[in-house]
Amino acid sequence: MNAFELHNPTKLVFGAGKVSQLGGLVKPYGKRILLVYGGGSIKSSGLYDDVLEQLSKIGATVHELSGIEPNPRLSTVNKGIEICRKEKVEFVLAVGGGSVLDAAKAIAAGALYDGDMWDFTVHKAIIQEALPIGTVLTLAATGSEMNGNAVISNWETKQKRGLGSKLIYPQFSILDPKLTYTVPVNQTINGIVDIMSHVFEQYFSLTTDIPLQERFAESILLTVIENGEKAIADGSDYDARANLLLAGTYALNGTLPNGVTTDWATHGIEHEVSAIYDIAHGAGLSIIFPNWMKFVYKERVSKFVQYAVRVWNVDPAGKSDDEIALAGIEATRAYFTRIGSPATLGELGINDEQLDRMAEEATQFGPIGTFKQLNKDDVLSILTASL
Q: For residues 153 and 71, is the Cβ–Cβ distance under 8 A?
């Protein structure tokens, strides 16, 4: 096990009706608020009115930025930064899913930076200060509600890059499972894949003697597998929605990587695909992850054997380690297919025209991944297998 430090400053407020606490949670940070959200779903569900009612109770002046894209764009983030500077915004409130939260984090960092926010994503600058952020989550997926990470797309250059800092952890996040009832089925499916993929990136590691971290990860995977299909079948199943929501938070709130060398190559590859084709992140991960698994599993077959047996109940009797490992990978693919997630890039209308560019971009700073370091040719092989 590696040495580590853990500190998570986000206050998690979980349960039905917890939006009623929003005003009190925002109040200590000021009254000039930027409200960030996506499309019209929070209005049709009544959440928008509930949020404004809470903010009116503390006498807040609310400025709005709507229309955050599923892959939030730099151009939209810059609009939010401009509002913050012009209106002297004191607090950024994100209401929506992970994309909305990511945009809010980028806005919060960019508003106090005398330069281009994109500098944070290309290692030209480090976040030194940021506006405080709060979130009301409406989708189980990214874990952005309890971490200091965000991913932004530059649509003009077809690049998708991340930024991170302890300064952009939300001050609080409200998680009410009932707010996820109206999430469309396809978004629920993408969220399930996203959560599982976050766990994979931290579970498939060369670090040894980490039984607690492994079982944490396996328990999240089993919880998602058990509750995912229930949530798809019945969107208003409170227990299924609650379990998915909490699983999404714990998958990426800093619990799993303690003492562990993590990977993140698959996310890097998928970012290049969605940067060009603007596909849903979960859909891209559903396609790429099983192919990454097949490409790297021999680096540590025993970990994939453990995964197959513990998570997918693969019977090891009479099978070689390779056969057990591959059975676990196939079980992963079968689950993604069963819940309605794509298996090939071709299903999304993507051909081989941009594969070389995507492989080049994914490895522009050198090999990616730690379970197996991948160079451009390796990434190209995984993308080709994903067609």
A: yes
C-alpha–C-alpha distance, residues 168 and 22, integer Å: 19
Domain residue spans of the chain: 11-179, 184-385
Could you tell me which residues are beta bridge partners of residue 135? 94, 173
Q: Are strands 149-154 and 159-164 parallel, antiparallel or unpaired?
A: antiparallel
Q: Give the C-alpha distances (Å, rounded to integers) separating 276 from 113, 157, 163, 353.
A: 28, 9, 19, 11
Cα separation, 317 vs 299, in Å, equals 23
The residue type at 323: E
What's the pLDDT tens digit per position in 191-222?
A: 999 999 999 999 999 999 999 999 999 999 99
Tokens encoding 85: 């500077």
Which residue from 93, 122, 87, 119 is spatially nearest to 105, judged by alpha carbons?
93
Predicted TM-score (pTM) of the model is 0.94
Determine the Cα–Cα distance for residues 116 and 74; give it in Å rounded to an integer: 10
Note the pLDDT tens digit of each residue in 162-174. Answer: 999 999 999 999 9
| Angle, CA 377 vertex, CA 376 and CA 378 arms, to 5° | 90
Crossing angle of the two packed helices 185-203 and 238-251, in degrees rounded to 10: 40
In tens, the pLDDT along 22-39 reads 999 999 999 999 999 998
Q: Which two tokens stand for residue 251?
A: 């998958």
* Amino acid sitting at position 48: Y
- Strand 149-154 and strand 61-65: pairing? unpaired
pLDDT of residue 41: 87
Contact status, residue 257 vs residue 214, Cβ threshold 8 Å = no
The CATH classification number of 11-179 equals 3.40.50.1970
Backbone angles phi, psi at 123, to 5 degrees: 65, 30
Domain covering 184-385 in this structure, CATH number: 1.20.1090.10
Residues 6+ apart with CB under 8 A from 138: 41, 42, 47, 95, 96, 97, 179, 180, 183
Name the E strands within the chain: 11-14, 32-37, 61-65, 91-96, 133-137, 149-154, 159-164, 172-175
